[in-house]
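Re: weekly structure request thread

Next one in the queue (417 aa):
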Amino acid sequence: MAQLSDDCFASSGPMMSVDEAVRLITTRVTAIPDIETVALAEADGRILANEILAPLPLPPFTNSAVDGYAVASRDLPKASEQAFSISGRVQAGAAANAPIEPGHAVRIFTGAPLPDGADTVFMQEDVRLEGDKVVLPAGLEPGANVRPAGEDIPLGHAALQAGKRLRPQDVALAAAFGLVKLDVIRRIRVAVFSTGDELVSPGERRAPPQLFDSNRFMLMAMLRRLGCEVSDLGILRDEPASLARALKDVAGHHDLILTTGGVSTGEEDHVKAGVESVGRLVLWRMAIKPGRPVAMGIIGGTPFIGLPGNPVASFVTFVHVVRPTILALSAAVPEPLVPMPVRAEFTYKKKIGRREYVRVNLRQAQDGMLEAVKFPREGAGLLSSLVDTDGLVELSEPITRVEPGQTVGFLSYASLI
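Done, posted below.
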Protein backbone atom coordinates (compact mmCIF):
# COMPACT_ATOMS: atom_id res chain seq x y z
CA MET A 1 0.00 0.00 0.00
CA ALA A 2 1.28 3.45 -0.90
CA GLN A 3 1.97 5.99 1.81
CA LEU A 4 1.56 9.75 1.81
CA SER A 5 3.26 12.03 4.31
CA ASP A 6 0.83 13.98 6.48
CA ASP A 7 2.28 17.38 5.54
CA CYS A 8 2.20 16.81 1.83
CA PHE A 9 -0.54 19.31 1.16
CA ALA A 10 0.64 22.03 3.51
CA SER A 11 0.46 25.25 1.55
CA SER A 12 -0.32 28.81 2.39
CA GLY A 13 -2.95 30.78 0.53
CA PRO A 14 -6.48 29.93 -0.55
CA MET A 15 -5.64 28.81 -4.11
CA MET A 16 -2.92 26.47 -5.33
CA SER A 17 -1.34 26.76 -8.76
CA VAL A 18 -1.25 23.75 -11.07
CA ASP A 19 2.56 23.64 -11.00
CA GLU A 20 2.63 23.74 -7.21
CA ALA A 21 0.09 20.94 -7.09
CA VAL A 22 2.13 18.73 -9.37
CA ARG A 23 5.32 19.50 -7.43
CA LEU A 24 3.74 18.56 -4.11
CA ILE A 25 2.38 15.32 -5.51
CA THR A 26 5.55 14.16 -7.21
CA THR A 27 7.86 15.03 -4.32
CA ARG A 28 5.77 13.79 -1.38
CA VAL A 29 4.05 10.60 -2.56
CA THR A 30 6.01 7.46 -1.66
CA ALA A 31 6.28 4.97 -4.49
CA ILE A 32 5.17 1.40 -3.94
CA PRO A 33 8.10 -1.04 -3.72
CA ASP A 34 6.46 -4.12 -5.20
CA ILE A 35 7.99 -5.63 -8.34
CA GLU A 36 6.68 -8.40 -10.57
CA THR A 37 8.02 -10.15 -13.63
CA VAL A 38 5.96 -10.17 -16.84
CA ALA A 39 6.38 -11.72 -20.25
CA LEU A 40 7.75 -9.35 -22.86
CA ALA A 41 4.48 -9.47 -24.79
CA GLU A 42 2.66 -8.16 -21.68
CA ALA A 43 5.10 -5.34 -20.88
CA ASP A 44 3.60 -2.51 -22.96
CA GLY A 45 2.40 0.31 -20.71
CA ARG A 46 4.07 -1.07 -17.58
CA ILE A 47 6.67 0.80 -15.50
CA LEU A 48 10.14 -0.72 -15.79
CA ALA A 49 11.51 -1.56 -12.34
CA ASN A 50 15.21 -1.96 -13.12
CA GLU A 51 17.58 -0.34 -15.59
CA ILE A 52 18.41 -2.48 -18.62
CA LEU A 53 22.03 -2.44 -19.78
CA ALA A 54 22.58 -3.65 -23.33
CA PRO A 55 23.58 -7.34 -23.04
CA LEU A 56 24.86 -7.25 -26.61
CA PRO A 57 25.65 -4.53 -29.12
CA LEU A 58 23.04 -3.53 -31.69
CA PRO A 59 23.55 -4.52 -34.36
CA PRO A 60 25.49 -7.47 -32.91
CA PHE A 61 27.66 -7.74 -36.03
CA THR A 62 28.76 -5.45 -38.84
CA ASN A 63 26.35 -5.82 -41.75
CA SER A 64 25.33 -4.35 -45.08
CA ALA A 65 22.76 -1.54 -45.16
CA VAL A 66 21.84 -2.22 -48.81
CA ASP A 67 21.74 -4.89 -51.49
CA GLY A 68 24.97 -4.59 -53.44
CA TYR A 69 28.64 -5.56 -53.54
CA ALA A 70 31.09 -5.53 -50.63
CA VAL A 71 34.77 -4.66 -51.08
CA ALA A 72 37.78 -3.71 -48.96
CA SER A 73 38.33 0.04 -48.84
CA ARG A 74 41.96 -0.45 -49.85
CA ASP A 75 40.67 -1.56 -53.26
CA LEU A 76 38.22 1.31 -53.86
CA PRO A 77 38.48 2.81 -57.38
CA LYS A 78 40.08 6.25 -57.06
CA ALA A 79 40.02 8.00 -60.44
CA SER A 80 37.85 5.85 -62.70
CA GLU A 81 35.55 2.87 -62.61
CA GLN A 82 37.06 -0.57 -62.15
CA ALA A 83 35.99 -4.15 -62.79
CA PHE A 84 36.12 -6.64 -59.90
CA SER A 85 35.81 -10.40 -59.89
CA ILE A 86 32.88 -11.67 -57.84
CA SER A 87 34.18 -14.19 -55.37
CA GLY A 88 31.18 -15.02 -53.24
CA ARG A 89 27.62 -14.37 -52.16
CA VAL A 90 26.28 -13.60 -48.65
CA GLN A 91 22.57 -13.29 -47.84
CA ALA A 92 20.88 -12.18 -44.63
CA GLY A 93 21.00 -14.89 -41.99
CA ALA A 94 24.05 -16.59 -43.50
CA ALA A 95 27.70 -16.25 -42.56
CA ALA A 96 30.47 -15.31 -44.99
CA ASN A 97 32.50 -18.41 -45.80
CA ALA A 98 35.88 -16.76 -46.27
CA PRO A 99 37.67 -13.40 -46.00
CA ILE A 100 37.44 -11.16 -49.04
CA GLU A 101 40.29 -11.51 -51.50
CA PRO A 102 42.26 -8.47 -52.70
CA GLY A 103 40.72 -6.98 -55.85
CA HIS A 104 37.51 -8.96 -55.47
CA ALA A 105 33.92 -8.08 -54.62
CA VAL A 106 31.33 -10.17 -52.79
CA ARG A 107 27.64 -10.09 -53.68
CA ILE A 108 25.81 -9.12 -50.46
CA PHE A 109 22.27 -8.39 -49.31
CA THR A 110 20.75 -6.07 -46.74
CA GLY A 111 21.41 -7.27 -43.19
CA ALA A 112 24.02 -9.83 -44.20
CA PRO A 113 27.32 -9.87 -42.26
CA LEU A 114 30.32 -8.44 -44.09
CA PRO A 115 33.12 -10.90 -44.94
CA ASP A 116 36.33 -10.40 -42.98
CA GLY A 117 38.33 -7.64 -44.63
CA ALA A 118 35.34 -5.99 -46.33
CA ASP A 119 34.26 -2.62 -44.99
CA THR A 120 32.43 -0.83 -47.84
CA VAL A 121 29.35 -1.71 -49.91
CA PHE A 122 28.34 -0.41 -53.35
CA MET A 123 24.58 -0.19 -53.97
CA GLN A 124 23.50 -2.54 -56.72
CA GLU A 125 21.84 0.29 -58.66
CA ASP A 126 25.19 2.10 -58.88
CA VAL A 127 27.11 -0.75 -60.56
CA ARG A 128 26.86 -2.79 -63.72
CA LEU A 129 27.66 -6.37 -64.52
CA GLU A 130 29.99 -7.40 -67.35
CA GLY A 131 30.08 -11.16 -67.67
CA ASP A 132 31.34 -12.62 -64.41
CA LYS A 133 32.63 -9.27 -63.16
CA VAL A 134 31.06 -6.21 -61.57
CA VAL A 135 32.12 -2.70 -62.58
CA LEU A 136 32.29 -0.33 -59.61
CA PRO A 137 32.35 3.47 -60.00
CA ALA A 138 35.02 5.71 -58.48
CA GLY A 139 34.46 8.13 -55.62
CA LEU A 140 32.70 6.03 -52.96
CA GLU A 141 33.85 6.84 -49.42
CA PRO A 142 35.31 4.06 -47.24
CA GLY A 143 32.68 2.58 -44.92
CA ALA A 144 29.73 3.58 -47.10
CA ASN A 145 26.47 1.60 -46.76
CA VAL A 146 27.73 -0.37 -43.77
CA ARG A 147 26.15 -0.72 -40.31
CA PRO A 148 29.00 -1.25 -37.82
CA ALA A 149 28.46 -3.54 -34.84
CA GLY A 150 27.14 -1.43 -31.94
CA GLU A 151 26.29 1.51 -34.20
CA ASP A 152 22.80 1.70 -32.70
CA ILE A 153 23.56 0.74 -29.10
CA PRO A 154 26.98 -0.35 -27.76
CA LEU A 155 27.45 -3.25 -25.37
CA GLY A 156 26.70 -2.24 -21.76
CA HIS A 157 24.93 1.00 -22.66
CA ALA A 158 22.05 2.07 -20.37
CA ALA A 159 19.36 1.37 -22.94
CA LEU A 160 16.16 1.57 -20.85
CA GLN A 161 16.03 3.42 -17.54
CA ALA A 162 14.18 2.34 -14.44
CA GLY A 163 10.86 4.14 -14.11
CA LYS A 164 10.21 4.30 -17.84
CA ARG A 165 6.63 3.68 -18.92
CA LEU A 166 7.21 1.14 -21.65
CA ARG A 167 6.02 1.86 -25.16
CA PRO A 168 5.86 -0.51 -28.15
CA GLN A 169 9.27 0.74 -29.34
CA ASP A 170 10.76 0.05 -25.89
CA VAL A 171 9.37 -3.48 -26.00
CA ALA A 172 10.95 -3.85 -29.44
CA LEU A 173 14.34 -2.84 -28.04
CA ALA A 174 14.06 -5.38 -25.23
CA ALA A 175 13.18 -8.02 -27.81
CA ALA A 176 16.22 -7.03 -29.91
CA PHE A 177 18.33 -7.84 -26.85
CA GLY A 178 16.77 -11.29 -26.71
CA LEU A 179 14.93 -10.64 -23.44
CA VAL A 180 11.75 -12.65 -22.82
CA LYS A 181 10.73 -11.22 -19.42
CA LEU A 182 10.95 -7.82 -17.75
CA ASP A 183 10.76 -6.70 -14.12
CA VAL A 184 8.05 -4.06 -13.70
CA ILE A 185 6.32 -2.22 -10.88
CA ARG A 186 3.09 -3.94 -9.98
CA ARG A 187 -0.05 -2.18 -11.11
CA ILE A 188 -1.35 0.64 -8.90
CA ARG A 189 -4.57 -0.43 -7.19
CA VAL A 190 -7.20 2.31 -7.33
CA ALA A 191 -10.65 2.28 -5.72
CA VAL A 192 -13.13 4.41 -7.67
CA PHE A 193 -16.43 5.81 -6.35
CA SER A 194 -18.93 8.30 -7.63
CA THR A 195 -20.93 10.30 -5.10
CA GLY A 196 -24.42 11.73 -5.14
CA ASP A 197 -28.05 10.76 -4.66
CA GLU A 198 -28.76 12.12 -8.13
CA LEU A 199 -26.77 9.33 -9.82
CA VAL A 200 -27.63 5.80 -10.90
CA SER A 201 -25.40 3.35 -12.73
CA PRO A 202 -26.13 2.51 -16.37
CA GLY A 203 -28.48 -0.45 -16.49
CA GLU A 204 -30.33 0.57 -13.34
CA ARG A 205 -33.74 2.21 -13.25
CA ARG A 206 -33.41 5.99 -13.49
CA ALA A 207 -35.93 8.26 -11.78
CA PRO A 208 -36.86 11.46 -13.67
CA PRO A 209 -34.63 13.75 -11.54
CA GLN A 210 -31.64 11.39 -11.71
CA LEU A 211 -28.69 11.03 -14.11
CA PHE A 212 -26.79 8.02 -15.33
CA ASP A 213 -23.30 8.05 -13.83
CA SER A 214 -20.77 8.77 -16.58
CA ASN A 215 -17.77 10.15 -14.67
CA ARG A 216 -16.96 6.87 -12.95
CA PHE A 217 -16.67 5.04 -16.25
CA MET A 218 -14.57 7.81 -17.79
CA LEU A 219 -12.18 7.81 -14.85
CA MET A 220 -11.86 4.02 -14.79
CA ALA A 221 -11.03 4.02 -18.49
CA MET A 222 -8.39 6.72 -17.95
CA LEU A 223 -6.89 4.79 -15.03
CA ARG A 224 -6.67 1.60 -17.07
CA ARG A 225 -4.87 3.48 -19.83
CA LEU A 226 -2.31 4.40 -17.17
CA GLY A 227 -1.90 0.72 -16.34
CA CYS A 228 -3.87 0.71 -13.08
CA GLU A 229 -5.81 -2.12 -11.49
CA VAL A 230 -9.24 -0.60 -10.87
CA SER A 231 -11.88 -1.53 -8.30
CA ASP A 232 -15.31 -0.23 -9.33
CA LEU A 233 -17.03 0.48 -6.02
CA GLY A 234 -20.14 2.10 -7.39
CA ILE A 235 -21.94 5.16 -6.08
CA LEU A 236 -21.67 6.58 -2.57
CA ARG A 237 -24.85 8.24 -1.40
CA ASP A 238 -25.00 11.70 0.19
CA GLU A 239 -24.75 10.47 3.76
CA PRO A 240 -21.50 11.30 5.60
CA ALA A 241 -21.40 8.24 7.91
CA SER A 242 -21.90 5.60 5.22
CA LEU A 243 -19.56 7.49 2.90
CA ALA A 244 -16.89 7.53 5.61
CA ARG A 245 -17.30 3.81 6.30
CA ALA A 246 -16.94 2.93 2.63
CA LEU A 247 -13.77 5.00 2.28
CA LYS A 248 -12.25 3.51 5.44
CA ASP A 249 -13.04 -0.05 4.32
CA VAL A 250 -11.10 0.25 1.05
CA ALA A 251 -8.13 2.27 2.32
CA GLY A 252 -6.03 -0.67 3.46
CA HIS A 253 -6.45 -2.60 0.23
CA HIS A 254 -5.65 0.10 -2.33
CA ASP A 255 -2.86 2.51 -3.21
CA LEU A 256 -5.23 5.36 -4.09
CA ILE A 257 -8.88 6.22 -3.48
CA LEU A 258 -10.54 8.31 -6.20
CA THR A 259 -14.00 9.84 -6.05
CA THR A 260 -15.92 12.22 -8.25
CA GLY A 261 -18.54 14.71 -7.10
CA GLY A 262 -19.40 16.12 -3.68
CA VAL A 263 -16.15 18.07 -3.16
CA SER A 264 -17.50 21.62 -3.41
CA THR A 265 -18.75 23.65 -0.46
CA GLY A 266 -22.49 23.17 -0.81
CA GLU A 267 -24.76 21.79 1.92
CA GLU A 268 -25.07 18.46 0.12
CA ASP A 269 -21.36 18.08 -0.65
CA HIS A 270 -20.47 15.54 2.03
CA VAL A 271 -17.09 14.22 0.93
CA LYS A 272 -15.15 16.67 3.10
CA ALA A 273 -16.94 15.68 6.29
CA GLY A 274 -16.85 11.99 5.43
CA VAL A 275 -13.13 11.94 4.78
CA GLU A 276 -12.27 14.07 7.82
CA SER A 277 -14.12 11.64 10.07
CA VAL A 278 -11.82 8.73 9.07
CA GLY A 279 -8.68 10.50 7.93
CA ARG A 280 -7.17 13.86 7.18
CA LEU A 281 -8.31 16.10 4.36
CA VAL A 282 -7.15 19.41 3.02
CA LEU A 283 -9.68 20.92 0.65
CA TRP A 284 -7.54 21.86 -2.33
CA ARG A 285 -8.83 24.79 -4.35
CA MET A 286 -6.68 24.72 -7.43
CA ALA A 287 -6.32 27.73 -9.72
CA ILE A 288 -7.61 25.91 -12.77
CA LYS A 289 -10.64 26.11 -15.07
CA PRO A 290 -12.54 23.92 -15.56
CA GLY A 291 -11.90 22.38 -12.16
CA ARG A 292 -10.98 24.24 -8.98
CA PRO A 293 -12.74 22.15 -6.29
CA VAL A 294 -10.42 19.18 -5.76
CA ALA A 295 -10.25 17.40 -2.38
CA MET A 296 -7.06 15.64 -1.37
CA GLY A 297 -6.10 13.87 1.80
CA ILE A 298 -5.07 10.66 3.55
CA ILE A 299 -7.18 7.79 4.85
CA GLY A 300 -5.24 5.19 6.81
CA GLY A 301 -2.05 6.13 5.02
CA THR A 302 -3.66 5.84 1.59
CA PRO A 303 -3.87 8.94 -0.64
CA PHE A 304 -7.37 10.18 -1.37
CA ILE A 305 -8.38 12.43 -4.28
CA GLY A 306 -11.87 13.80 -4.82
CA LEU A 307 -12.52 15.30 -8.24
CA PRO A 308 -15.33 17.66 -9.30
CA GLY A 309 -18.62 16.22 -10.47
CA ASN A 310 -18.86 18.06 -13.80
CA PRO A 311 -17.38 15.70 -16.43
CA VAL A 312 -15.09 18.21 -18.18
CA ALA A 313 -13.76 19.46 -14.84
CA SER A 314 -13.27 15.86 -13.74
CA PHE A 315 -11.38 15.06 -16.95
CA VAL A 316 -9.09 18.11 -16.73
CA THR A 317 -8.29 17.71 -13.03
CA PHE A 318 -7.64 14.00 -13.52
CA VAL A 319 -4.93 14.93 -16.02
CA HIS A 320 -3.27 17.40 -13.66
CA VAL A 321 -3.78 15.70 -10.30
CA VAL A 322 -4.45 11.98 -10.69
CA ARG A 323 -2.09 11.32 -13.60
CA PRO A 324 1.04 12.67 -11.82
CA THR A 325 -0.04 10.89 -8.62
CA ILE A 326 -0.22 7.56 -10.45
CA LEU A 327 3.21 8.13 -12.01
CA ALA A 328 4.69 9.07 -8.64
CA LEU A 329 3.17 6.01 -6.95
CA SER A 330 4.68 3.88 -9.71
CA ALA A 331 8.18 5.40 -9.33
CA ALA A 332 7.79 6.41 -12.96
CA VAL A 333 9.95 8.94 -14.72
CA PRO A 334 7.95 12.20 -14.86
CA GLU A 335 6.10 12.73 -18.13
CA PRO A 336 5.58 16.48 -18.44
CA LEU A 337 2.82 17.62 -20.76
CA VAL A 338 4.35 19.68 -23.55
CA PRO A 339 1.81 21.71 -25.54
CA MET A 340 2.24 21.89 -29.31
CA PRO A 341 2.24 25.44 -30.72
CA VAL A 342 -0.72 26.12 -33.00
CA ARG A 343 -2.56 29.21 -34.18
CA ALA A 344 -5.73 30.33 -32.41
CA GLU A 345 -8.78 30.90 -34.57
CA PHE A 346 -10.84 32.23 -31.66
CA THR A 347 -11.14 35.13 -29.25
CA TYR A 348 -11.12 34.36 -25.54
CA LYS A 349 -10.96 36.25 -22.24
CA LYS A 350 -9.70 34.79 -18.96
CA LYS A 351 -8.75 35.78 -15.43
CA ILE A 352 -5.12 36.46 -14.64
CA GLY A 353 -3.51 34.04 -12.18
CA ARG A 354 -5.59 31.05 -13.26
CA ARG A 355 -4.69 28.36 -15.78
CA GLU A 356 -7.50 27.62 -18.18
CA TYR A 357 -8.16 24.91 -20.72
CA VAL A 358 -10.23 25.53 -23.83
CA ARG A 359 -11.73 22.62 -25.77
CA VAL A 360 -10.80 22.87 -29.45
CA ASN A 361 -10.61 21.10 -32.76
CA LEU A 362 -7.58 21.32 -35.02
CA ARG A 363 -7.88 22.16 -38.69
CA GLN A 364 -5.40 22.99 -41.41
CA ALA A 365 -5.72 26.57 -42.66
CA GLN A 366 -5.23 27.58 -46.29
CA ASP A 367 -1.61 28.55 -45.58
CA GLY A 368 -0.92 25.07 -44.24
CA MET A 369 -0.73 26.10 -40.58
CA LEU A 370 -2.69 24.23 -37.91
CA GLU A 371 -5.46 26.27 -36.32
CA ALA A 372 -7.30 25.67 -33.05
CA VAL A 373 -11.06 26.16 -33.40
CA LYS A 374 -12.93 26.61 -30.13
CA PHE A 375 -15.90 24.40 -29.31
CA PRO A 376 -18.94 26.66 -29.78
CA ARG A 377 -20.46 26.19 -26.32
CA GLU A 378 -19.17 26.70 -22.79
CA GLY A 379 -19.88 24.59 -19.72
CA ALA A 380 -18.04 21.99 -17.65
CA GLY A 381 -21.02 19.66 -17.86
CA LEU A 382 -20.95 19.18 -21.64
CA LEU A 383 -19.69 15.70 -22.44
CA SER A 384 -20.10 16.52 -26.13
CA SER A 385 -17.37 19.13 -25.74
CA LEU A 386 -14.93 16.31 -24.96
CA VAL A 387 -16.29 13.86 -27.51
CA ASP A 388 -16.45 16.29 -30.43
CA THR A 389 -13.04 17.96 -30.00
CA ASP A 390 -9.41 16.98 -30.54
CA GLY A 391 -7.86 18.35 -27.36
CA LEU A 392 -7.28 21.33 -25.11
CA VAL A 393 -5.60 24.68 -25.57
CA GLU A 394 -3.64 25.51 -22.42
CA LEU A 395 -3.69 29.16 -21.37
CA SER A 396 -1.12 29.91 -18.68
CA GLU A 397 -1.68 32.06 -15.61
CA PRO A 398 -0.36 35.41 -16.99
CA ILE A 399 -2.57 35.34 -20.10
CA THR A 400 -5.75 37.41 -19.99
CA ARG A 401 -6.85 37.38 -23.62
CA VAL A 402 -6.44 35.39 -26.82
CA GLU A 403 -6.94 36.89 -30.25
CA PRO A 404 -7.19 35.14 -33.64
CA GLY A 405 -3.74 34.54 -35.10
CA GLN A 406 -2.06 34.30 -31.69
CA THR A 407 0.13 31.25 -31.01
CA VAL A 408 -1.26 29.01 -28.26
CA GLY A 409 -0.31 25.63 -26.81
CA PHE A 410 -2.36 22.58 -27.81
CA LEU A 411 -2.57 19.31 -25.89
CA SER A 412 -4.12 16.42 -27.79
CA TYR A 413 -6.29 14.04 -25.80
CA ALA A 414 -3.97 11.22 -26.87
CA SER A 415 -1.07 12.94 -25.08
CA LEU A 416 -2.98 13.36 -21.81
CA ILE A 417 -3.54 9.72 -20.86
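Confidence is low (pLDDT under 50) at residues 5-13. The first strand starts at residue 3 and ends at 4.
Next request, please.
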